[in-house]
Sequence to fold (181 residues):
Amino acid sequence: MDQKMKQLISKELEQFHCSILLKEVKEKVRWLRAYGVADAEIEAILHKEELLPELTVTKDYKIMIGGDRRQEVEMEPLVKTIYLLFLSHPEGIVLKYLPDYRKELRTIYRQLRPQGLTERAEKSIDNVIDSTQNSINEKCARIRKAFSDVLPQHIVRYYTISGKRGEAKKISLPRELVVWE
Fold:
């Protein structure tokens, strides 16, 4: 058998092995989904993005990204309040039920505003939970912007609040990468 024929056979065997491996990967992905692993986590592994930086919430509620060389993700208090609410609910929150989280929002906001909640601050919370207002969407856009300022674009989606219309909105970052000091 000549060299050209060996190369042709070798290439065909390689393609055959690749097709078998692809079928196995698809089957493993189906199993991961069946076990409840989030699509975002599967996607991160498949796109070699499994090295997502750690997110740390410090004792004084700073949101930091990275390990040794941490960088702060800066947000105004109300935006940070919303982020911390969603971060503390990995199962997500359906926006139409946001009024059910008013007390929790107030508690978080009060911790970020040691001077207390003014009437204006209370009104801001009311606007966020009011489904006739666009306030929650504006705050989510500000969260995306804050993370876009410190992270590469291809991984921002793991750190921000997202979800399909009418379904739970959540932060898809694997919780083993979230540290609460």
